[in-house]
User: What shape does this take?
Amino acid sequence: MTAHQINKWGLVLFALFTLAAPFILPLFIDAFWVDIYSEMLIWSLLAASVNLLFGYVGLLSFGQALFFGMGMYGVAIGVAKLGLGFWPALGLGIVLSTAMSAFAGALAVRLTWHYFAIITVVFSLIFYFTALSWKPLTGGDDGLSFSMPPMLTWGEDGELSLTDPTVQYYFIITMVGLCYVLMGVILKSPLGWAFRTVRENAMRASLIGLNVYLIRLTAFIVAGFIAGMAGALFAFFGRYASASYMFYHVSGEAVVWAIIGGAGTLLGPVVGTSLLIMLREELSTLWEHYLLLVGVIVILVVVFAPKGIGGLWHGLINRIAKPAPDAVDVKDGEDRS
Amino acid sequence: MELVIALGMNGIVWGLIIALIALGLSIIFGLLDIINIAHGDFFMVGTVLAWAVFEGTGNYWLAFAIVPIIGFGLGALIEYAVIQPIKNAAALSIVATFGLSIILQESVRATYGAAPSRLTAPIETTIPLFGLEYEVYRLFAAFISVVAIVAFFIFLHRTKMGTWMRAVRYDPETATAMGIPARRVYQITFAIGFAMAALGGVVAGPITTVDFQAGVDVLPFCFMAVIIGGLGNLEGTVAAAVMLAFFEGVMASFADPTMARIGSLCLMSLVLLIRPHGIFSGATR
Assistant: This one.
């Protein structure tokens, strides 16, 4: 099998596992792992939004928690304060986070590298402190909880709601799946290649006629949308929103997940997020100070696998797999035209 | 009016302490290209070590001498174990120092405990100043910070190691070719950065609380000072730290502290957008 085929089959297996998880997982381990699995998938979206910016456009954002928070508060405030239904609240969360990313991005992408990282932290801190002090609306540190509105109602008392764990699980994986498909499509499109061009050399990109500012802004808005979706799903998942999820530590964790998983690979963030959340869930019951181990593991991965677990994986399958036909051509120096 | 003066004074004192810590961040950033997420925790380790020295010996003054030395040793060790292997790659440095930050916070939580405590200042008298009774310890804290900052600049400009540090920063390859042991310079720079943050912790200990999460609040402030002052502009870092803290102190006398924080963050984003290379960028180079 070629490396490409191995990856494709791996992806199919992963998708099948995800679809069947509510039935398979309880057979082997505690059923609460189904919940943890959906939580992992939600957080992986936040890591994916970091990865989209850092891995593909070369912008290191330390403020993705801002858009996560906007999605989260959009849903929570929509339901608890404005009395919105399920879908309008979801819409509000997405619109808020996307609008915020358009506003913040228009200012932030004028800067790059260290300056970009700092200004994204500053923006997210401004809104973190705002959310913290605006208690009547956001509940501040105590947070804002709400009761779940139904997704769909029919007849007398027929309704579909996330209070049913199966419905909740499939709703979450559908939304998460759609986001990954969206990212996959964008990254394969000419826009996705423009992203990579800007990452490799912004100067050359602008010389061949690409509008670097607009490309960075587009990526920033898409990433904001993805992070906002993660936040909205997380609010539904926990029926709760809190300012603490907007703190820069949350953004930092997302950066760590993305880089540990492998920046610049589509599914790296899923791997990194799952690994670290699994570690947390497993170790926290065994040892109170398990975070010491997490810190050591993070450092070990960075030292021994600087390209992350995604990089390790690519190295491994390229070694065991048959080289792809076109790769042979290039090696033999044959003219393929 | 008295409140404005008091909070403004507190702002300047706090700003000088932050300047000392941020200077450590700035040299690590400037010389090693390491974005040190754990720098706030270096400060926190300083406060906890100061607490430990006080608990152990009953003499707070000893902490001023002992803690920076321990900090220097820890810094050298961490540079060897964590920073050297990642070879100054800035993106990886964020992740590695994030791991480091987790380890430092958790080891303090495991040993010192999770409950914050307060240290009593070694000088408890007050003197009249600008029409109010001001704590002498705060003046002393400002004094120590200034002395440490000045000593660092003298070290940087008057000693061989300081000259090496500037040379390696300017051009590491040429410096290595000229026989400067760049690796050792990196290690000592990182260790000095840790020592400065730890000294900041000792100085600030009696003013703030001793808490394993204390670094989380200090870190963004230090980064702001470094960026507003201009990357690599050490004098700018000091000036920016004092100005930011003074501004926040004065703001805090009109609005609540959170509002003051939001105000200084907005000011910070304006500076970044209008003068991304720092407010002093016209003055140097």
